[in-house]
Amino acid sequence: MTPFDQGHALIVGVGADLPNTVNDAQGLANLLQNPARCGYPPEHVYLLTGEGATRGAILAALEIISQSTNPQSTILVYFSGHGYQARASIGEAYYLLPYGYDTHRLSETAISGQTFTEKLRAIPAQKLLVLLDCCHAGGVGDAKAPGLELSKSPLPPEATALLAEGSGRVLIASSREDELSFAGKPYSAFTLALIEALSGAGVAKKDGYVRVADVAGHTREVVPGRTNKRQHPILHFEHADNFVLAYYAGGDTQPKGLPFDVEPEIEPEPGAWTVFDQRGQTVHGPQTNIAGDVQGPVFSGQFGGPVAVGGGEAVDMRGSRGAVYKPSGPVEQQFGSRITITGDGNVIGDGSRSTVVKQEMFLIN
Predict the structure, then answer these.
(1) Boundary-marking domain end, from 266, 294, 324
(2) pLDDT tens digits, residue range 291-312?
(3) Which of 22, 47, 116, 283 is most buried by a 10 A CB count?
(4) Does residue 351 surpass a pLDDT of 60?
(5) Is 196 strand, coil or helix?
């Protein structure tokens, strides 16, 4: 197999309160550097996730790419995290929020749209695709600097001006400004569409190559369908050349199918699978068992056994995602038959090893 030597990529999944962004970034990076798939040389793919996806690390990787590429290179930049338009008394600015951002020090800990665009402009490659998945459910909460207003925004205004500077520059955002991005498994709706396209799904020519129009067209077609027309990617593609992005089967012309075996699933509402602990911190995504003395508005997750509220009749919800809305009492997950533990510690039951298991409580936003 001949490597796609001209391919270079920066893949960022910020993590923190958006754990699904790490899975998305890892899945995309794995596909790009797979020699039987996209064929990017592994040393050309920079993957930054979680604690590694800081402002400094992202800007340093963009600098390395600008120094190590040439006009014939193909560059793919993917960022999955929060994007916000910030308004304060001194003016407005767009920011990508990397790992470790501080709303009291956005200029020092976040990446402004101007800085991001300047780093992209410094890349000499004539073929550049920027993918932004920024309108996720949840957000920065109340920990904001006084007088600062933040609103979700899918892309930096400055980046759109960059598109007019060359026909080899394309920008795709995951959703419109008034929409949120849907998470899913194994990947979010947007990233799933990207991975499908880069695997050869819907390519216009079965010649072994994925072109930028293949990616743009596939995301525009399948993302709205999977989200009940509530997420529509933004495509800035009109003035671009239809350049080659990668192989889809390591140079072969026959697609190999998707690089995963599970049936894709998209959450029913943006943020429905995001799980928080009592401090409001995200702990993990859809594979959630809910139990404990629940005191919040909505609780949901994927259950491994029957669920009972306040000692009431248990409902078997194994293998399904369910929700307990405004429960009136403690929520417990049962594994096997119910038993009762009396005040003296004696167990009343049928002698089996079945028990009622109380687990850590998780809150759903």
Answers:
(1) 266
(2) 333 333 333 444 444 544 444 4
(3) 116
(4) no
(5) helix
Beta bridge partners, 96, equal 83, 111
Is the torsion defined by CA of 55, 56, 60, 63 positive or negative? positive
On whether both 185 and 332 belong to a single domain, the answer is no
The CATH number of the domain holding residue 244 is 3.40.50.1460
Sheet of strand 307-309, all strands in order from the earlier edge strand to the far edge: 307-309, 331-335, 355-357
Beta-carbon contacts of 351 under 8 Å, excluding residues fewer than 6 positions away, are none
pLDDT per residue as tens digits for the range 30-66: 999 999 999 999 999 999 999 999 999 999 999 999 9
For residues 247-257, one letter each, b for 16 or more C-beta atoms within 10 angstroms of the residue's C-beta and e for the rest, the string is: bbbbeeeebee
12 vs 255: CA distance, rounded Å: 26
d(CA 212, CA 203): 10
Please check whether residues 147 and 289 belong to one and the same domain.
no
The total of other beta-carbon atoms located within 10 Å of residue 121's CB is 17
Structural domain containing residue 193: 7-266
